[in-house]
Amino acid sequence: MYEGKKTKNMFLNRALEKILADKEVKKAHHSQLRKACEVALEEIKAETEKQSPPHGETKTGSSTLPPVKSKTNFIEADKYFLPFELACQSKCPRIVSTSLDCLQKLIAYGHLTGNAPDSTTPGKKLIDRIIETICGCFQGPQTDEGVQLQIIKLQEAKQMEKERHRQHHLLLQSPVSHHEPESPHLRYLPPQTVDHMSQEHEGDLDPHANDMDKSLQDETEPENGSDLSSAENEQTEADQATAAETLSKNDILYDGENNDLEEKPQDIVQSIVEEMVNIVVGDMGDVTTVNVNADGSVGTLEDGSDSENIQANGIPGTPISVAYTPSLPDDRLSVSSNDTQESGNSSGPSPGAKFSHILQKDAFLVFRSLCKLSMKPLSDGPPDPKSHELRSKILSLQLLLSILQNAGPVFRTNEMFINAIKQYLCVALSKNGVSSVPEVFELSLSIFLTLLSNFKTHLKMQIEVFFKEIFLYILETSTSSFDHKWMVIQTLTRICADAQSVVDIYVNYDCDLNAANIFERLVNDLSKIAQGRGSQELGMSNVQELSLRKKGLECLVSILKCMVEWSKDQYVNPNSQTTLGQEKPSEQETSEIKHPETINRYGSLNSLESTSSSGIGSYSTQMSGNDNPEQFEVLKQQKEIIEQGIDLFNKKPKRGIQYLQEQGMLGTTPEDIAQFLHQEERLDSTQVGEFLGDNDKFNKEVMYAYVDQHDFSGKDFVSALRMFLEGFRLPGEAQKIDRLMEKFAARYLECNQGQTLFASADTAYVLAYSIIMLTTDLHSPQVKNKMTKEQYIKMNRGINDSKDLPEEYLSAIYNEIAGKKISMKETKELTIPTKSSKQNVASEKQRRLLYNLEMEQMAKTAKALMEAVSHVQAPFTSATHLEHVRPMFKLAWTPFLAAFSVGLQDCDDTEVASLCLEGIRCAIRIACIFSIQLERDAYVQALARFTLLTVSSGITEMKQKNIDTIKTLITVAHTDGNYLGNSWHEILKCISQLELAQLIGTGVKPRYISGTVRGREGSLSGTKDQAPDEFVGLGLVGGNVDWKQIASIQESIGETSSQSVVVAVDRIFTGSTRLDGNAIVDFVRWLCAVSMDELLSTTHPRMFSLQKIVEISYYNMGRIRLQWSRIWEVIGDHFNKVGCNPNEDVAIFAVDSLRQLSMKFLEKGELANFRFQKDFLRPFEHIMKRNRSPTIRDMVVRCIAQMVNSQAANIRSGWKNIFSVFHLAASDQDESIVELAFQTTGHIVTLVFEKHFPATIDSFQDAVKCLSEFACNAAFPDTSMEAIRLIRHCAKYVSDRPQTFKEYTSDDMNVAPEDRVWVRGWFPILFELSCIINRCKLDVRTRGLTVMFEIMKTYGHTYEKHWWQDLFRIVFRIFDNMKLPEQQTEKAEWMTTTCNHALYAICDVFTQYLEVLSDVLLDDIFAQLYWCVQQDNEQLARSGTNCLENVVILNGEKFTLEIWDKTCNCTLDIFKTTIPHALLTWRPTSGETAPPSPSPVSEKQLDTVSQKSVDIHDSIQPRSSDNRQQAPLTSVSAVNEEVGKVKPTAKFPEQKLFAALLIKCVVQLELIQTIDNIVFFPATSKKEDAENLAAAQRDAVDFDVRVDTQDQGMYRFLTSQQLFKLLDCLLESHRFAKAFNSNNEQRTALWKAGFKGKSKPNLLKQETSSLACGLRILFRMYTDEGRASAWEEVQHRLLNVCSEALSYFLTLTSESHREAWTNLLLLFLTKVLKISDNRFKAHASFYYPLLCEIMQFDLIPELRAVLRRFFLRIGVVFQISPPPEQEPGINKQ
């Protein structure tokens, strides 16, 4: 015990004596100190004596050894504090030093604790006074060094003491030591002192250490105790003592003036630095070792060594148990609000925000102190690296950095700390972030980076300010120095490397309506830097410029890489072995959207442990918004609209407002607009002022609303005015200012109604105006003579209702305005000066100056903004969605592209080139992933452009970067093939050109490049200095390039044919199998397009791409059919075009490739109902159709023939194409082609069909069609005949295998199975035959016709009824008028031959298959016959009537009544339409003179129907003996004769008319004959006439009248009605003929016009035969018992007809005419004679007078004989005379 006291006293004695001994103390002003020392010494002495030890123990004490620390006499040294306090206050360094030294020892050894209450100021502890005293000794940088060192030592001692207490108390579970230094002085002291001291000594130790770039290096190289420092710092609460203890062991030996141990300050400094760091970083409950490494970075060490170190300190592992809550008064754990805020800030966290532990409060206070310290302004002038301010600033920033880098969960989430960062750190940063001192600037940037990675969720607004006002500003302004730009870009490189950050910046700022577009601006600025724009103004060296450009590019590339990384889950690599950036992990490792490691490095929200021991306000969770990409996209669009509106507003306010209203972003009421003007910071303040000041009614309303939205209540007048004018710049016009002030005054009074100062608003208005004038006057540089205060007061006289305002009030206003002008708020002040306003800065010095000014302005603005946002809580969204990348890329793709393009264009630096290429690759990848086509194409085009392959002069300028570009392009093609779409075009174009380059590079003579180009005779031009013309022809080099150049070109291009490039290109084509279904189609489509371009060259077509097409067809043939058919659609089309290339070599190559592919394809075979072969072989067809070259056509036919011969068994749907090709070949004129094609077709039809009929059935029709085409080729008649034979052969197949057709299913599913054999078999055959008939020459046609009907007759029994209908539709086409040939002769020939044959054949078929056909065909046949009769062809007309007759005679027995009706009607129709009425009506056209009469005979003679008159019917062919005309032999002559008979004098139209009339006459006659035959056949009229004549010739005595009972002809099948119909026809015909023959005049006219021969025409035959036939029918009916019902009618008709006929006969004048009637009369008389007496009576009485008249004429004997019989019979019947006995022939009925 005693020892301790003794030592203490010894310390005190020695110190006090030393002070008293100092000569300074002798001076008068130290009298107080002197007195205090003396008093103290005496007291000590007294005490020493009182406590003198027992004898013998004296020797143990030693003044040199520290005494044992006792626990009992704490308080004793406290009372001796006064002399030391006074000593410290003396200004003499020696005294101060002595006193501090003593205090340090007392405290270190525990003699001086300061626990006693302070007698001078109640409520405080003595310790406070001690601390204040010590701190008071520090007088700034000029403080004496010894004193400073003492102060530092004291600090340590104090720390140690505190620790000791704390440990003690902890063990006792008593409250924590209260010796926390809380005085603000102390808070400031450590950094300052430490910093100062360390710098001073460092200066001594290491002259080179002055430049601070080594950051903390020098301060943290402990020579002593370093081993301990790393181990013992593990425990957050224990660690504060460690350094101090380590050092204090040496401290006793250290004496202020002793400079032997100069390293000491280093150790001291280091210990304190560490201590500070550890206090702050200390994470409650977190055990981490903070290890400050030599380079100032902070690492953590966590290993097994922890536990023992903890034990070593004797402190339990968990420093504060959970149960333990310190029982401290509340204020100890809370920080009152004025602690946390500077006076300027009005709002903030609630005054009593709690900390859960005193240490947290400490940490908070230290942190705040450091922030404030770092904001201390530097002295003016260039910064002195040694100056105390600068060094303290740097140290505080370094400490802050290390605090942030090691922040634990509490620090990251506790509301208080977050607020501290917002309020202090961010503001501090905004000040230091623009520092012109590089170290400070760099540290600020590092701190910012740390904030961005650890705290960004809380600092949305702050980060924005930092970016907008500092980073981007420095990048954008041209005055900022290279160093600054460089550092900013370095920092950006770090930011841009983290995907999360990049996407977050976009989502939180660019998509936020109220934030700046940081991402967009960032990319634009980087792009400008990367392009090297503006570097001249900066006066940078080239090296600097280049390095800056590289950095810019690097940032851009890393942004793109982040975007690729972010969206990579959506990317499918076709070749999965390569990914874009090599350093990326392969797909499998990345299971979630973001890598786990990124989460750790850049703490995303979820990794913060929000449940940490701070129970209070950890609000990280509530701060994050939801990530919904669609919503952000909408926001972005709205934002763009708003920005556009603001831009417009800043040019023309009204236009801007109108635009925003149209877009629905702004309301229409004045209030809405006013609010917009208030809130929108980006509006140009001048424009706002102009707008508000405008006199327009609406503007005024807005202005009123704007002012009314201010609340001026409680503000003094000037503040209110300041507030009002903060938001806009006052307009210049007085009236506008006037209006604004007026409203302002009104509003001010409205808000402050209780004020008594202003009598009315007028006063306020005038005063406001005068204040405006004053501020302009005082602060405008233009005003030279400034207004004085007196003048101002004078100016405002009498404005308050004729009274004055108080002078002191006006004076105060004047002072305030003079002190600070009224201006807009700082945040609005700074606008980056535009480019135009910058004069070119003359010198570097001037630029620096300018920059420093700008920097100051920036700092101001930034600080103002930071303070403004320090309390805003803006939600921060952590992006998680892939989808964000799309809008990001769309927004920024142009600057990216510009940067990369410019980089590649104008910079040969390989690093720049590789960065650009990588950037382009990433961009293409992003565009691909999100299929943004325009952008993707733009990038690929850029790449393609820089390969120089597609430019005309390009190849000559190849450099390494271009070769790299080629490689990049190939890589893109390889990795992104699935997404390239139309961009394949550019790529394949380049690859095509690359092949050309390789050819030249390898020295191939270009003339051989394109296969063989024919017709290039003539050698190279001989001039040496000209490039060979092939080079020029290929467009590779300009005209005059000498040989040397060509050699060098070859060399530079040599690289393009390097193995790697060739292999890579090949890999694109072989890799095409891995492209997906859509991509391969794009790929192929563009490959074909490029191939087309290659082949366009007339002289040098190249087939590179064509070969590649063939290759990839091989590779991809194995794809699923669906994809393959889409690919082939494109390739096939290409082959179509290429096969028709005018250059034969190309076409041959194409056809040959096709052949090979087809063979390969056919080998695979095909299942039923598929159509792939058809698609595949279609190009052959196309080439055959379009290419006229015989070589190619021949080749195509040969290829197909080869396929048939080798692959027949595998061909299915391909047969269609094969026949199609042969079909085209069939019409060729080249014999060999036709021959080969026909041979193969024959082979197919005879052999292949036999074997594989089911497989070929689909193309059966095509086969027949093909054969018909051969048949129609007029050039080869033999082939034609053979083809028809083969068609006949096909019919056999159909008849043999109907089942096959039935089973065949295909596209005609709507055809019933039983009809299939017709639709697919019979019909095609018959149809094609009908085509042959319609198309070919006579002999072929006839053969076709024969075969067609032969088939019908042979196989018709199998045909269904409706098939026949179809069939005859075709058959009747033979008669189709429209289809007949045009020329008269051909038409005539056609009718006389083909139609004729067909008609008879049809009738034959009809007869053969009557049962089936009667319903189906009869109408058609009648219609057709009717048609034939109407044609202007005599032959045909006759055949028509003839066939009618045949059909009816052959089939009439089977006819039904209905059919007979039809038949009669048909006959009727024919009759009616063929009566040649025109004969009676025709008149010669006026002016036509009659031809001269053949002889000068008088008219009278001509009138008589003499021998000269010609019967029109004379030319009719005689019917054969049985009176039925057979199918005539072809007789053209008859027709020609007919036409020839028309007199040449007749005009052509008349000729035509006459010919037609003639034919009608012929038809009439034929018809009469036909009716006769139909009714009576085989009995014929001729025979009967002959018999009648013969009977009459025999003498009347044996005149035998035989009644014809033979039931023949169709008479018996016809009803009376039908017979009457026929009769009517006959009689009509008769009457017409009679009329014509009687019309002498008309006949003469016709004769003169040239109708029919040498004399006048007549119709005698018609006249007589029609009547004769009619009479026969009537008489037959008359005698027919079966028709008794019709007898009356018959008799009636008979009487009329006969009497009429006889009357007519009596009128005849011409001899020949009467002669013609002889047979008729004979018939009539004979028939009448045969009827019964009863009937005879009626008849005889009717005819009697007429017959008497006849007796006058000169009749032939036969007629007279019959007349005689008639009259005799009258005698008998009317019983005039008795019947003569001798006449047994008379039938007495």
Total beta strand runs: 6
Oligomeric state of shown chains: single chain
Poorly predicted spans: 57-65, 68-75, 168-263, 283-352, 577-624, 829-839, 1007-1039, 1487-1507, 1520-1545, 1596-1601, 1784-1789
Q: State the distance separating the first and last CA atoms.
A: 196 Å
| Class inferred from helices and paired strands | mainly alpha
Strand content: under 5%
Indicate the overall shape: elongated
Radius of gyration: 64 Å
Q: Largest beta sheet: what is the strand line-up? A: 1-2
Count up the helices. Answer: 77
Describe the main β-sheet briefly: 2 strands, antiparallel
Helix content: 55-70%
On the 0 to 100 scale, the average pLDDT is 74
Your description of this structure?
Helix 19 packs parallel to helix 22. This protein has 77 helices and 6 strands. The strands form 3 sheets. The protein has a two-stranded antiparallel ribbon with strand order 1-2. The protein starts with a helix and ends in a 16-residue tail after the last helix. It has 1789 residues and is mainly α.
Provide keyphrases for this structure.
1789 residues, mainly alpha, single chain, two-stranded antiparallel sheet
